[in-house]
Here is the input.
Amino acid sequence: MSNSYFQFKQFRIEQADCAQKVSTDACILGAAADLAGATRVLDVGTGTGLLALMAAQRAPAALSEAIEIDPAAAAQAAANAAASPWAARVRVLPLSLAAYAATGPAGFSHILCNPPFFRRSLPPPSAARALARHAGATSLSFEEIAVFATTFLLPNGTLTVLLPPAEMLAFEVVAQASGLGAQARLGVRHRPGGRVTRIIGKFGCGPARAISATELTIMAAEGPQYSAEFARLLAEFYLAL
Here is the structure.
C-alpha cells in the first residue's frame, strides 16, 4: 500500500485522497524539466500538486498554476500547496484543461504534464485511478494538450511531457500537427542495460529543430543504491540523498 504522504526536503505531499500517488517518474520530470527563465508555470493534471511544488522550489521567480479535474485530488493538492513554503506562488484550480482554457489564462513560459497514457490496457477498477492514468477515461487527450500549449505558451515557452516511448512517438506526431516542434528527449531506464521505459520530451512553438537526446539510469549497476546521475538530479528533493 502506498504511504499516505511523501516527505521531501522542503515540502510534504499528502496523497491519501489522490488516486495517482507520488512516483519516481514524476519526480524525475519535476527535477529534469528545463525551467530556465521561468515566469509562469502550469502543471496540467497536477494530482497531488507535486510538479507545481517542484517548479516553485526550482524557480523562485515563477508563479505556478495547477489544474486537476478530480475534486478530491484538487483539494489535496491545494492543501499541499498551502502548507508549502511557496503558498503565495502556487494556485490550484479544480478544472479540466478545456474549462481552464475557457477562462483565457495569461501566457505561460513553461507547461508541465504527466498525462494519462494507458490507451490499450484495461482500465483499473477505481474510477479515480482510471481518470488519472487512462487516456480513454478522460477528455485530456494528446490533441487537447498540444493545442492548449500552442495557444497559451509564450513565444519562447516550452511544454515538457512524460510518456512511455510508444506514446511519446504518437504525441510527437500530434504536437507537430499542432505547431509544436520537439526540442529534446530524455530517455529513462531503471538499470544499466535495461530498456527505456519513459521519455521526457521538451517541445516549443515552431518547427522541430536539432533534438538533444540524453538518457538517465535510475539505479546503480549493483546493489540497491541510486545511480550517481539520479542522485545528482534529485539531491535537492529526496531526503535520502
About this structure: The helical segments are 24-32, 50-58, 71-82, 97-102, 127-133, 142-152, 165-177, 228-234. Strands lie at 5-7, 12-14, 40-44, 63-67, 90-93, 108-113, 153-163, 180-189, 196-205, 212-217. The chain has one domain: 24-234.
